[in-house]
Amino acid sequence: MKSPLDPPGRLLLGPGPSPVDPSVLDALAKPVLGHMDPEFVAIMDQTSDRLRSVFRTRNPLTFPVSGTGSAGMEASMINVLEPGDSIVIGVNGVFGARMADAAGRAGAKVTLVEAPWGEPIDPEALGSAVRSVNPKAVALVHAETSTGAQSPVDLVRREIGPAPLLIVDSVTSLAGIALEVDKWGIDVCFSGTQKCLSVPPGLAPITFSPRAAQAIADRTTPVQSWYLDVSMLRKYWEEGDGGRTYHHTAPVSMVYALWEGLRLVLEEGLEDRWARHQEVGEFLQQELTDLGFKLYAKAGCRLPQLTSVTLPKGVDDNLRGRLLNDFDIEIGGGLGEGAGKVWRIGLMGFGAKRANAIRLVQSIRALVS
Amino acid sequence: MKSPLDPPGRLLLGPGPSPVDPSVLDALAKPVLGHMDPEFVAIMDQTSDRLRSVFRTRNPLTFPVSGTGSAGMEASMINVLEPGDSIVIGVNGVFGARMADAAGRAGAKVTLVEAPWGEPIDPEALGSAVRSVNPKAVALVHAETSTGAQSPVDLVRREIGPAPLLIVDSVTSLAGIALEVDKWGIDVCFSGTQKCLSVPPGLAPITFSPRAAQAIADRTTPVQSWYLDVSMLRKYWEEGDGGRTYHHTAPVSMVYALWEGLRLVLEEGLEDRWARHQEVGEFLQQELTDLGFKLYAKAGCRLPQLTSVTLPKGVDDNLRGRLLNDFDIEIGGGLGEGAGKVWRIGLMGFGAKRANAIRLVQSIRALVS
């Protein structure tokens, strides 16, 4: 039986997972503590504090869900929504549609506000839907990983008014572009670890505003999931009268990795990190345009950390396999409407470096010339 | 900001997480691959193969759920049960009750068959309940982590007959005591990584018999969870017509750790590992009895890998804190009925060593003398 494990060292320039800083890998391998050990509880508290800084929020209820980003998405939907509740969801790609799927399974009445792939959700269209159905919540994806388009969350709250809870998927935006949970009036914001945080996949950072926490406390039906029930999870992640209450065994090693990944984000400075993503992403987009690729997302809404392109003549989707095998570079193919026609290239977190963009562009050039 | 992360090196002798072999920690820190990388898919396949060996099953549908053991529990319940389905659940501790909670949230009609804490579930009582309510499924915990008692799963199938699906929680039993998924007629078996597999917490190995897989395929209602929907998860973990279908981003590093942890189990040999747990557990139980502790679980059903004891006069539950702080040894307190009165001591996986039992007993003796 082959041992030890020996995965090749890929340069991860797909839509995630992104490259991981060596100090985060070191943190993963630290001695495991018990999930109720006071030393681990201190690490949990520091992790929540750092998440608040990165989410730009003062929400007490802020912690990582013990699953990947999609578990955070599901936790958002099923805790906020009760059967029969109404929600308006912006859909302009795979991940908006996924939220609608989860909300439907939770028994909610779902109203979709759609936009073409590669374009942002229109805040006015969300506002109009809200005035029409008076929903409990509005949800949208800040940075659509399937298309490379961002939606103007800051304008959404203005259009939908103060009433609905605002749920935002920040899986690909957190720590990569400006995101202001409190300033923008976001009530529930979830993310993943494996994008601009540059931590391996496995946890879903999430934050709930006091208003969202109250809505959960006011439920009259149980949350359909035991594992993702925030009314129980909060007793483990927050200090209560009797200390911490065991719920499930936290994924200790992954929390270590997140702790360290967040430390690196804050050491760099959130705004400097946003600027780095912006600069490197623009550089790549110019280079790819020069090579004959067309940018897929509409001008004005392009994510710097995730560039989507349509392929020029002479460039086949199968080249991705040669990039992987001959150059050890992973990039992503298209999802849904973009399958076979679109490439998705991430310059995220630790990977958002001009040298990585240059290595990719040179490799593509070598393959197509 | 303190860096690097520097958790103390505890000897983990609680009910889990258990001590982790250094080679598993090394695996955690290997370079991250993309979740669709062919090299990672090969690791996934090897992981499923190894899980089949450890579960003693030929079930094709065998993989780790991307969450902790409780996520595996929930996945079992919500995929097998549709609203209105009937299930009989054996409850003799916290984890049986947890299954009942999850089944109830799934809309199932739940019939409990209870046994006193510290005692096994009576297979005849399950059989009698099955004849009375004719359920779709029967569920019980093989090794109750809250009490240290095991239930005779091998006898359960005989008593309940061939009709109901049999769901077994093997969180604390897998790789610690005999467990025979196919031979015993188990249809759904879930576990956790942080007990006798000695891998950090974060994944839930699970296996479904062809009959259970068919029951899921025959559902007329969607599974309430998107994240844990096995009909979608199987398209990622099993090779289909078009290869693998992306569902969520797998927790790559944790899969590495499980891959390596399973390799160590199979290198040792499953039956040798069971024997090691038996020998070391019996040694500890004799030593603790000599010290004046009373074994909490009933004779004949005591788990070797998890010893529960009631405290003798002069031994206070607070001593656990001194064991942790002064001796760097973690043991567990009681849950539920046992809170404040019971200690739970795990000798699991890499931690199931006579030297660890001796170190614990000497430390307790030093504290109480």
Describe the overall structure:
Two copies of one chain form a homodimer. The first copy, chain A, has 369 residues and is an alpha/beta fold. The first copy, chain A, folds into two domains: 11-16 and 270-368, Aspartate Aminotransferase, domain 1; 22-267, Type I PLP-dependent aspartate aminotransferase-like (Major domain) (Aspartate Aminotransferase, domain 2, 3-Layer(aba) Sandwich). The first copy, chain A, contains twelve helices and 15 strands. The first copy, chain A, has helices at residues 22-28, 38-55, 69-80, 94-105, 123-133, 153-160, 210-217, 230-237, 252-268, 270-290, 319-327, 354-368; strands spanning 11-12, 61-65, 86-91, 109-114, 137-141, 143-144, 149-150, 165-169, 188-190, 204-208, 294-295, 306-310, 329-330, 332-333, 342-346. In chain A, the strands form four sheets. In chain A, strands 2-10-9-8-5-3-4 form a seven-stranded mixed beta sheet, sandwiched between helices. In chain A, helix 10 (270-290) packs parallel to helix 12. The longest helix of chain A is centred in the C-terminal third of the chain and has 21 residues, at 270-290. Chain A starts with 10 loop residues before the first strand and ends with a helix. Chains A and B meet through helix 1, helix 2, helix 3, helix 4 and helix 9 of A and helix 1, helix 2, helix 3, helix 4 and helix 9 of B.
